[in-house]
Amino acid sequence: MTKHLKKVRLRVEKLQKIYQTGSGPFEAVRSLTFDLHDGEFACLVGPSGSGKTTLLKCIAGLMGATSGSVVLDGQPVNGPAKGMAVVFQEYGRSLFPWMTVEANVGLPLKTGGVPKAERAERIAEALEAVGLGAAGGKYPWQLSGGMQQRVAIARAVASRPSVLLMDEPFAAVDAQTRADLEDLVRRIWQEHNMTILFVTHDIDESVYLAERVLVLSSSPTVIQNDIAIDLPRERDQLLTRSDARFGELRAEVYERVQFAKTNVTGQSEPARLVEAGA
Ligand SMILES: Nc1ncnc2c1ncn2[C@@H]1O[C@H](COP(=O)(O)OP(=O)(O)OP(=O)(O)O)[C@@H](O)[C@H]1O
Ligand SMILES: [Mg+2]
Hints:
One of its GO terms (molecular function) is ATP hydrolysis activity. By secondary structure, this protein is an alpha/beta fold. Helices cover about 35% and strands about 25% of the residues.
């Protein structure tokens, strides 16, 4: 595993989430532990239903954990924390249709008490960063899906979070837009020195985006693998994806996700994977 000299930004420790359902308690997440260091870009991959969204909601303070803790910059997270922003998959539902793009982006700043002049500046900067400098006066329903998702990203960026959490944010956009948004997020990450935790189903996307991929087990979920993505920092949709190392990492993450799908938590991995070193 990579040695980190940077400070721990986010610490998730023995996080457990048990849902109370009509048919009894259901343990979605079990004793999950990992750290994110300052400025790290990590992707979280795992089988459908493995608890990715559950985990992200607990980290964001939008849902209480059953036990364990989430600590941001040394402070326990017990509700929506100031230094964290979230981008969800369903951009359509995350923007208010009766508010202009500017008003949507500025809403968290307004509720956070940022003065009007500074608000305007930060909104303009964030919209510029996502290439929507001219769309501030429009309404979300006047924009394409990819543009709406960029508005949601701008809203998160405008609040200048130290940690950005993203839950399959590009699952509903077309492949070309998705590639553009991936590069946009990498650029924003580099420019703003944010720490990003990005949930995705897509193994290629996880390897392309991240410096580190965390593979979840199937439910009840623990971190099954923590894989360092040792690709050059500058990524390019064509060059990076055709790099031999990209292919190797992609194969490794793929095999581990396949293993997670079929494995009951607690069983050890096949020798071939263990030897490859997780
Ligand atoms: N509110 C809830 N009440 C009861 N069970 C829930 C609730 N929300 C999620 N679950 C269960 O917890 C498990 C994890 O769900 P979660 O949505 O976190 O998975 P996920 O990894 O995000 O899935 P996907 O890849 O499909 O988005 C699933 O088995 C799901 O049925
Ligand atoms: Mg989910």
